[in-house]
Design a protein that fits this description.
Layout (H helix, E strand, L loop, with lengths): L12 E3 L2 E3 L5 E5 L6 E6 L3 H18 L4 H17 L1 H12 L3 H21 L6 E3 L7 E8 L2 E5 L7 H13 L2 E5 L5 H13 L7 E3 L4 H10 L3 E7 L2 H11 L5 E5 L4 E5 L5 H13 L9 E7 L3 H13 L19 H16 L3 E7 L7 E9 L4 H4 L6 E7 L2 H8 L4 E2 L1 E5 L3 H10 L4 E4 L14 E2 L2 E2 L4 H6 L2 E8 L3
Parallel strand pairs: 7-8, 7-10, 8-9, 10-11, 12-13, 12-18, 13-16, 15-16, 18-19
Antiparallel strand pairs: 1-2, 3-4, 5-6, 6-22, 11-21, 14-15, 17-20
Helix pairs in contact: 1-7, 2-4, 2-5, 2-6, 3-4, 3-6, 4-5, 7-8, 9-10
Bound molecules: adenosine-5'-diphosphate.
Amino acid sequence: MQLNYPALFQQQCYINGQWVAAQGETQAITNPSNGQVIGEVPMLGRMHAEQSVAAAQAAFEQWKQTTADQRADILRRWYELMMEHQDDLATILTLEQGKPFAEAKGEISYAASFVQWYSEEARRAYGEIIPSHRPNGKIVVTKEPIGVVAAITPWNFPAAMITRKCAPALAAGCAMVLKPAPETPFTALALAKLAQDAGLPAGLFNVVTGDALEIGAVFTSDTRVRKVSFTGSTNVGKILMNQSATTIKKLALELGGNAPFIVFDDADIDAAVDGAMVAKFRNAGQTCVCANRLFVHDAVYDQFAAKLADRVANLKVGDGFDDGVVIGPLINAEAVAKVQEHVEDALSKGARVLCGKFAQGEQLFVEPFVLTDMNDEMLVASEETFGPVAPLFRFSDEAEVLARANATESGLAGYVYTRSLGRAWRVADKLEVGMVGINEGLISTAAAPFGGIKESGLGREGSRHGMEEYLEMKYMLMGGL
Ligand code: ADP
């Protein structure tokens, strides 16, 4: 691996400001593009998870007493270092995750933007003074950092899913222990290296790789951990919520989605195709806000399908470092198997393939699919595919499509394309989701509150609301004035 700053590639964990080597077992990390081993990380467990929590607790005691300016300065420096080392970070990211290098660079600047945003927001943990119910009293509300936060993150955005949590947490005055995804630990460790370089005090940001069950058990049961912030599958979210019940932890859960993408007959079809390309095929379809079900009005169905298939058939699939590649490999064989299952199920129930195919043998590359003649009995209608498959469902009526779009336990994102202002509002209001793209296929930004309803999770990340997640209110009644 060619890095300008080789120290970014760390094969050790980062606990209490120290680099901790493997004490025995290690885990090899492979490049999904070719199966080659990139390096290895320690397989740590309960003991190191507990050490990291203890370190975070001790660091928190000091950090919560710092001024917002002090915290802002360090976060700002961390942001600048991420941007300075954007290419190196993206190289590590593409190697372990597979996404095209240009997309990886985009993720690094997106990830860094959270650190920038919250370096500024650190100054705005405002409280409140509320008119008192008593003549000689005052009701004062202050905001305090919640304490030690445990984060567990997934592999699809190895950098951004971390900074969305740690930036607001650190800005608020909290400390963090992190278990990154087992597939993509090196990006997390590179961020830790830059945190160290930025002068973040020891113990505030700890990265522990290893046994997910053991580390997760400590994170969800240790009384010193006040909040668990998880991004990943709905099933694991439910397990962590259960485990957290015994110590009444606050929870932030960013779970799976099943986003509807609705194209009405009055839509700008070219804009809708552009939107579908990003909403569906970014990160090879491996994002929780990816359009999972594309509902297209009967009157424009064939036109939309032809235009989309034309674009999709020209997407270059391959190694993320190769020129012009926009679709990398899927993360692992299980991911490919799930996509295969969804496509085969649809075909067995009458769907047609406009484009797409699977690679031969062990390869994790999937030529992106466009499927037509979909119906609601097919697996894709109820399950998140998490891969490069655009299934087109036909509809003819606004009320009908809303009912079908909402017929899922997920409620993360939804997209609607229409030129009618009234319809845009009506549909956006009635979609049972946390986020709506109206004539937009890309909705994520540090400036907006990202999150879902129903089984898609709890809490929001990004914007000022994202920092509130790491603050507790304290109400003081001052009497006898
Ligand atoms: P994905 O299917 O995208 O890998 P998961 O929900 O399985 O999503 O994983 C997301 C994160 O949760 C990863 O860091 C993984 O190691 C972690 N994880 C999975 N199962 C558990 C568990 N039982 N306890 C704690 N962490 C877990």
